Amino acid sequence: MQTPGKLVTLLVGEAKKNWSGVPVEGIKEARSAPNYVGAVPVPSLVEVLLQHVGKKEVRFRVKRYSPNLIVVEGTADVEDIFDDAVLALKREMLVASKGILSKYETYKDFEEEYGIFCVSRYEGSPEGFFEHMPHAAAFLKSEREQLDEKEVAQTLEASIKYGKDDLLVVDWDGAFIFNKTGQFDETIGLLELGNLQLLRYRILDFELDRRLNKLAHLLHAQENKLFTMFRSSGIKEVVRKIIHARSRSIIEFESMERNIKLIGDWYSAKVFSLIEKKFHLDEWRRNIKEKFETLGDVYTMAAENFSLSFNKRMDIILIIGWLVLLIGWSILLVFDFMTR
Fold first, then answer.
1. Could you give the CA distance from residue 193 to residue 336 in angstroms, rounded to a whole number?
2. Do 23 and 118 reside in the same domain of the chain?
3. Among 143, 163, 192, which residue terminates a domain?
4. 203-208 LR contacts (CB < 8 Å, sep 24+)
5. Rounded to the nearest 5 degrees, what angle is found at the Cα of 97, between the Cα atoms of 184 and 73?
6. Domains held by the chain: number
7. In which domain, by residue range, is 38 found?
8. Are residues 132 and 279 in the same domain?
9. Are residues 161 and 260 in the same domain?
10. C-alpha to C-alpha distance for 203 and 191, rounded to whole angstroms
11. Is 28 exposed, middle or buried (0-12, 13-18, 19+ CB in 10 A)?
12. Which of 168, 192, 216 is the last residue of a domain?
């Protein structure tokens, strides 16, 4: 028996420059529970493309999240969502998405891929698909072979039910959404937001490493300079760069956290909490905070270095002044002695 469905692929990348677009059409949601979709980041629509991927016509939407994150969202209807051919279609759609993303001059080393399997036409409990079709769980991990029962059970643990007959199962590489109303927009948007957050953490983590390495190199080079105590401008420049790097990093991090905190209670908050757990966002957040502390230590070291060098320079200038004064008095005494 076939189970029709919709396959959605997400490819997220960082553009090297900002792109403009028009607001994306409103998110449709059938739930009556309060949601806070309007408070979270809203993308702008850059373009819509129709392409044939294999034998399927796929609709690609290119969206931009401020300031320069690009999302290529592909959507295709499939006759049987559990057919092995759907995994092949997913890979082909992601390859096509990369071709589209490359037009926006994105960094190739920073991309996130994700697949979402949406089902609305089904009978009975959604959990039954995983109990009677164990290979369904393998779809979330892009695996063709059947998974062990324990692995299937662990996969189902990362799930949320809102209504009696709906189900959301989230994994690292993909998600299943069962909803008889066919309203998937809000959940897809939250999964998209989770991938965006993961990519932004990866980018910021890389930037912090790069800045720390650069600042450490600057400090090391400054310490090895001859007569460093007479060159305060070099240390001042190092301190200035550290302050700039630390301030910029904190602003970027706070911007990310502020948007996520605006996701309210009820369904949206529960879904995003599950996404955070599966994507290990807390670990990324903790790692970044530790690097902030390291950046603060580097700043303290540089400030102390500058203060120490300044004091040394003042002491030497004072000693030189006394020596000049002493030599001057000595010359005057010798001159006075010779004129007598």
1. 87
2. yes
3. 192
4. 203/14, 203/110, 204/249, 204/252, 204/253, 204/256, 204/288, 205/284, 205/287, 205/288, 205/291, 206/110, 207/249, 207/252, 208/249, 208/288, 208/291, 208/292, 208/295
5. 20
6. 2
7. 5-192
8. no
9. no
10. 19
11. exposed
12. 192
Residue 134: count other Cβ atoms within 10 Å of its Cβ: 16
DSSP E strands, 31-141: 44-53, 56-65, 69-78, 106-119
Residue 83 CA to residue 124 CA, distance in Å, equals 19
Task: Indicate if 112 and 243 belong to the same structural domain.
Answer: no
How far is it, in rounded angstroms, from Cα 12 to Cα 327? Answer: 72
Q: Does residue 93 share a domain with residue 50?
A: yes
Whether residues 202 and 269 share a domain: the answer is yes
**82 CB-near residues (< 8 Å, 6+ apart):** 3, 129, 133, 135, 136, 139
Mean pLDDT of the chain: 76
Asked if 186 and 203 sit in the same domain, the reply is: no
C-beta pairs of 162-168 under 8 Å, 24+ apart in sequence: 162/31, 162/33, 162/267, 165/125, 165/126, 166/126, 167/126, 167/127, 168/271, 168/274
pLDDT at 305: 61
Q: Pick the more confident residue, 276 or 328.
A: 276
Least confident span in 9-18, 94-103, 261-270: 261-270
Query: Exposed, middle or buried by CB within 10 Å (0-12, 13-18, 19+), for 226?
Result: exposed
Say what the pTM is. 0.75
Same domain, 162 and 95: yes
Strands across the sheet containing 167-170:
22-23, 44-53, 56-65, 69-78, 5-15, 106-119, 174-178, 167-170, 159-160
